């Protein structure tokens, strides 16, 4: 009887992969662990931190981090953006005004937001401050 190839050097799967066997052929199968993405191929699995590969598929208006328990990649919208998707499909939308993102963290003088949603924004400001 041969030793289980997964018990020897993790089946050559690498430190961020799980080794298992195909039920029919008993061939080694390497699967990246949570929080890691295969940047290699099906036969040459290379597991890299998901957040370093295309920002974890979070998009340019989100940051990628890892769940402290599961290590799964988590997308969080950046300041000024709101998740209009779901917890598992984060879609960050910003508030736009004249084609520019309105940054609510930097105050504008004599400026008052009256109504705010991702579809509509009503702003009251004196004519002297209309230039953005």
TrEMBL record:
<protein>
    <recommendedName>
        <fullName>EGF-like domain-containing protein</fullName>
    </recommendedName>
</protein>
């Amino acid at each position: 009887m041969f030793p289980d190839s997964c018990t020897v050097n993790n089946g050559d799967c690498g430190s961020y992969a799980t080794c298992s066997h195909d039920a029919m052929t008993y061939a080694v199968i390497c699967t990246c662990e949570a929080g890691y993405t295969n940047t290699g191929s099906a036969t040459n699995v290379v597991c890299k931190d998901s957040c370093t590969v295309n920002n974890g598929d979070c998009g340019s208006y989100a940051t990628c981090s890892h769940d402290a328990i599961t290590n799964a990649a988590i997308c969080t919208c950046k300041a000024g953006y709101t998740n209009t998707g779901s917890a598992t499909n984060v879609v960050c939308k910003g508030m736009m005004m004249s084609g520019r993102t309105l940054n609510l963290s930097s105050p504008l003088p004599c400026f008052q937001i009256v109504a705010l949603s991702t579809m509509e924004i009503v702003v009251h400001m004196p004519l002297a401050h209309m230039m953005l």
